[in-house]
Each structure stands twice: as structure tokens, then as C-alpha cells.
Design goal:
Strand content: 35-45%
Radius of gyration: 18 Å
Strand order of the largest sheet: 2-3-4-1-15-18-17-16
Mean pLDDT: 96
Low-confidence stretches: none
Distance between the termini: 20 Å
CATH class: Alpha Beta
CATH architecture: Roll
CATH superfamily: 2,3-Dihydroxybiphenyl 1,2-Dioxygenase, domain 1
Protein name: Glyoxalase
């Protein structure tokens, strides 16, 4: 099952603002394993397969560090094709001497780290969807310790050579200011479905019964302010709809809700109630 192609709607690309483009490019190539697809003085597009941009980095004029406790990016998540790929990645991180977070989410196994600007990154692999546990439309997820010894095992892996070709942007997780209002925007507006609630401060949404294409939380506080326009962090992300009909339905829904949605240079753009900017593609 592939949840990151039609007929599903999914996150295709994440666009970040950084303080120092060259520093970030060094990190994302040497540590994460991206390749540069295109680069200008202030911007670069990064790829795993040499064709598709997954991550875009931009160094704005008068950029300032993140002040924290705002809405915006919690993390973006790179989905690797296989468990062996994740094992190779963790060995690579260990060779780099990096400090990592990790978790077994039942539906997936995940590693967590941050780039030089503090932008959160998850690298994960999915378990077989047939093994995911569903009850009354909710998928069971957890934050259990990751069994790294079992993950790495005793197999000898090839020398790490960067992100595998089949890597995709698995999901994005956002800080928001009001969970109920945000839920209405993403479900009634953009067409997602709630598949898991984590207490009263986080929820996970998807299409096609994926465990989540988007995570939403208020862990930076109810009513958290939006970051400054020139702050490092999330610039925008893309949602890829399966066809024009599906995208147009989302645009119609947003207009009926009174949400901001407009066309800029041939691309439809909306902004969620917390100021997170979204490009609606197909």
C-alpha cells in the first residue's frame, strides 16, 4: 500500500527558512543525506531521487532566530522505504556522534533530531499497514521505546550513501494555536480525516487510512502566537491532491468556511488558522 500517491492527498514538499544557507546545506547533505537539485545564492531545493524536491531551504533577508513557543513547524518526517534503510541511518547517525530521540509508534519506528536552526526532523519507516490496529476509525499509536538492538541486529549493512531513492515526505507535524478550529479547517476544508487523538492537545489526520499525513498539537500553548515573517522555521508546505476535482472541492470548501484561499502565479495557496501556509497542488 502506498499512501503517498493518488488516490490519496499527501504532503509533497516542505519549505523552510534558515539563518545560513551554506551551513544548512552542509548539514542536510552530510547528516541527512539529501542531494542538491537546484541552488541560487539564497535558496536551494533538495532531493533524494535526483528529480523530486522534498525540501526547500531559503535564507531570507534580515533573518532572525526562532523565539520559540509559537505556531509553525514541530517536525517534518522523511519516510524511508525499508527497515534496513532505517538501520543504516541510525548507524550513520551514531558514526556522526549525534544525539537522537527515538520511538516505537506501533505503526512505525522513528528517529528524531534537529537541524542547526532547531527545525525538527523525523526519519522513520512504516510497519506493514496490515499490522496496524484500528478501532472505531482510530489507529492505535504509542510512544514506546525503540528497540535499537533489534533494529540494527547483526546484519552487515552497505556503507551509508545518503537517502535512498524511494524516500518521500511522509508527514508534517505542526504547532497550532487552537486545536478545535484547526481540526475543522483540515477536515471540513481540506478533506482530511481524524485517525487518532492524543489526549486533548494533539490529533493526527490523514486520507486513505494512513496513520497520519499531518499531526497537529497545541504543546506550545493554547493561543500561541505566529512567528515573525523573517523568523527561521516553516515557510510553507505543499498538499498534493489526486486530481483537479479533489483540489477544486477543497478550494470550494475553504471558500464556504470563509478561509483565506487565493491563486498566486498559477498556484492555489491557503493559510490555516495558525498562519501555516499551504500550497494546494495536484
Amino acid at each position: 500500500m502506498n499512501f503517498h500517491r493518488e488516490p490519496h492527498t499527501f504532503v509533497g514538499q516542505v519549505n523552510l527558512k534558515v539563518q545560513n544557507l551554506e551551513r544548512s546545506l552542509t548539514y542536510y547533505q552530510d547528516v541527512i543525506g539529501f542531494k542538491i537539485l537546484e541552488q541560487t545564492e539564497k535558496r536551494a531545493n533538495l532531493t533524494a531521487d535526483g528529480k523530486t524536491t522534498l525540501l526547500s531551504l531559503e535564507q531570507p533577508d534580515n533573518v532572525v532566530p526562532s523565539r520559540g513557543r509559537t505556531t509553525g513547524l514541530y517536525h517534518f518526517a522523511l519516510l524511508l522505504p525499508t527497515r534496513s534503510d532505517l538501520a543504516q541511518m541510525i548507524l550513520h547517525f551514531a558514526n556522526k556522534g549525534l544525539q537522537l530521540g527515538s520511538a516505537d509508534h506501533l505503526v512505525s519506528e522513528a528517529l528524531y533530531l534537529s537541524d542547526p536552526d532547531g527545525n525538527g526532523i523525523e526519519v522513520y519507516r512504516d510497519r506493514d499497514p496490515l499490522a496496524w490496529q484500528w478501532q472505531n476509525g482510530d489507529v492505535k499509536m504509542a510512544v514506546d521505546p525503540l528497540n535499537i538492538r533489534d533494529l540494527v541486529g547483526i546484519e552487515e549493512y552497505p556503507v551509508w550513501s545518503g537517502l535512498p531513492v524511494g524516500t518521500v515526505m511522509g508527514h508534517i507535524h505542526l504547532h497550532v494555536s487552537d486545536l478545535q478550529e484547526t481540526e475543522q479547517f483540515y477536515t471540513k476544508g481540506l478533506g482530511f480525516e481524524v485517525v487518532n487523538r492524543y489526549g486533548t492537545q494533539a490529533l493526527f489526520i490523514s486520507t486513505g487510512k494512513y496513520h497520519h499525513h499531518i499531526g497537529l498539537n497545541t504543546w506550545n500553548g493554547e493561543g500561541a502566537p505566529q512567528p515573525a515573517e523573517n523568523s527561521v522555521g516553516l515557510r510553507s508546505f505543499t498538499l498534493v491532491y489526486p486530481n483537479e476535482t479533489a483540489r477544486n472541492q477543497a478550494i470550494t470548501n475553504l471558500n464556504k468556511m470563509g478561509a483565506s484561499v487565493k491563486e498566486e502565479g498559477g498556484t492555489w495557496i491557503t493559510t490555516d488558522p495558525s498562519g501555516n501556509r499551504i500550497h494546494l497542488l495536484m
